[in-house]
UniProtKB/TrEMBL annotation:
GO molecular function ontology, one term from the record: intracellularly cAMP-activated cation channel activity
Topology in the lipid bilayer: Multi-pass membrane protein
Record-level GO cellular component terms: intracellular cyclic nucleotide activated cation channel complex; plasma membrane
SUPFAM superfamilies: Voltage-gated potassium channels
Designated name of the protein: Ion transport domain-containing protein
Pfam families assigned: Ion_trans
Main location class: membrane
Key words, A-Z: Membrane, Transmembrane, Transmembrane helix
Transmembrane residue ranges: 84-106, 177-195, 242-260
Gene3D superfamilies per record: 1.10.287.70, Helix hairpin bin
Subcellular location: Membrane
Amino acid sequence: MSFEMYASWTEQVLLCLFQAGQKRDPTAQAEVPAFRLRSELLTEKRLAERCSGRVSGGEREHVTEQRQLSAEARMSVPRVAGKLYVSWQLAVSVCFLYNCWAIFLRAVFLEGTHTDEAGFFACDYLSDLVYLLDMLLFKARIKFHSAGMWVIQTFWEFFDRIDALAKSPYVIRVLRTLLYMMYLIHLNTCAYYAISKYEGIGSNPFVFQGGNKTAYVRCFYFAFKTATSIGKNAKPSNELEYAYMTLSWLLGVFLFAFLIGQVRDIVATATQGRTQCRQAVDACVRHLRRLGLPDDLQRRVRLWLNHTWAQKKTL
């Protein structure tokens, strides 16, 4: 049966069905345009020809070329969950951390000095090279969205990726929290030394007393004691020092609140499975008691539940 005969036969059947329905429903429309049915059938014919492979030579070559280009593009795009991409994100994150720490360190402690300039310049050029390679070789080929936005924050993306791939994500979260805390104390250290230089090194008991080789270590120790509210520091003597101590105490409160919240979430996530198991066992025991079952049977049920959790970590 040719396609035209099939279309004509289908059109007649549909018209008969429509007329029968129209007799039952007098409010229906008067007629279905025949050309509409025919155009829909012709559209189906074209789709069937395309699906069956009966396309022109030029169109087939175009489709083949597009498939090859898409395959090459897929091969050239690194997998965002692969080891290569995550390792590269680690390198970019290290360079990012270096710039975050070194900018304030060099601006405050090494201003006007020529200490270790060659080492800092080498790290600067290496970081710039890593950023350039990241923009040209990786970021230009990564195409994925996160909450409807293009992903561009490499440092935060690295922690999310390594948290999802690591066998012990709780350790990664603790290290990330400690890293944030140490960086804030580092900024407080640079601020304390800048105040000491502004007022004069050793000008009063509150500021830094001197010693270029151990300046950062001693200032970091002072900032750490201030942030953790350990105390036994020299009392401030002017408004600037009072403002610094007030901001340092506020920073310490924020650090402890942030750290306690992070640790609480980490512990809750780490023990979530065991907590749910304990709740399920308690609910089962309460149900057994309501049923009035013998104590020996209840004991065996508890032993079986605990054994199942110990072996399979699930119930």
